Amino acid sequence: MNTQNQGLTIAGKTYRSRLLVGSGKYKDLEQTRLATEASGAEIITVAIRRVNIGQDPNAPSLLDVVPPSKYTILPNSAGCYNAEDAVYTLQLGRELLGGHKLCKLEVLGDEKTLFPNMPETLKAAKVLVQDGFDVMVYCSDDPIQARMLEDIGCVAVMPLASLIGSGMGILNPWNLSLIIDQAKVPVLVDAGVGTASDAAIAMELGCDGVLMNTAIAGAKDPVRMARAMGLAVEAGREAFLAGRMARKFAASPSSPMAGRIV
Hints:
Blueprint: E1 8-10, E2 13-15, E3 19-22, H1 29-39, E4 43-47, E5 72-76, H2 83-96, E6 102-105, H3 118-130, E7 134-139, H4 143-152, E8 156-159, H5 173-182, E9 188-190, H6 196-204, E10 209-212, H7 214-217, H8 222-242
Parallel strand pairs: 3-4, 3-10, 4-5, 6-7, 7-8, 9-10
Antiparallel strand pairs: 1-2
C-alpha cells in the first residue's frame, strides 16, 4: 500500500486533485465556471458531440470559462455507440485542442442503461492507442475486461460504480476492489456517484480518483456540492492511506481498563 499522498499521475503528468469533473448539465457557463473552481479539479472532461469547444465559432465556447491554460481538458466520446464513431469523435477533439493526446474513451451499449459496449470499447482502444492517444477508458466493472484494456495500453481504467447519472452510489465495491488489486494503471470510478459519501467510499476502497458530473450539476446548489466533493475525495484518500481499524464482532472500550483510579 502506498503510504504517501503524492498526487494522481496520468500519462506522465501529476495532478494535486484526484477529483475529475464534467462540464455538462449546468444552467449556464458561469455556473460551470464557479462549480469547476469550487471543486478544485484540474482535469475537466468535455463531450465533443455536445459541448462547443470551437466546433461552432459563432457560439460561446466552454474554453472561455474553463481555459486549457488553467485546466487539462479531457475530450470524451460520450454519445457514441460504436468504435468507429468514438475514434472519429476523439480525433476531432484532438484537432480542436491542437494535438492534445489525452482522451476519455466511452462507447455505450444502449440509450437506456448507458452501460459500456465492451467489444466496441476494446476495438476503439486498440485503434486510439496505435494512433498515439493517451486513453482513459470508461468500462464495465469486470476485472478481466479492465486487464485487457490495460494490456492494450490504456493509461487509466474507469469502471462504473452504478448507472451513469443515477446517483445510486457504489453498488459494486467487491468488483472495484478486484480491479484495483490487479491494476498497474490508475483506477478511477466513473458514473453513479450521487453525494459526497459516495466519493469518499470510492477513495477508501483504494481508487486513484473519481470522475463525476451529474452529482454536482444536478445538486440544488452545484457550487457548494462541488466543494463538498473535493473535500470528500481528499478525506477518502487520507482514510485509505491511514488504514481503517479492523472490524470486530465485540465491543472494545475506548478507554483502557488497566490502571483505573477507582
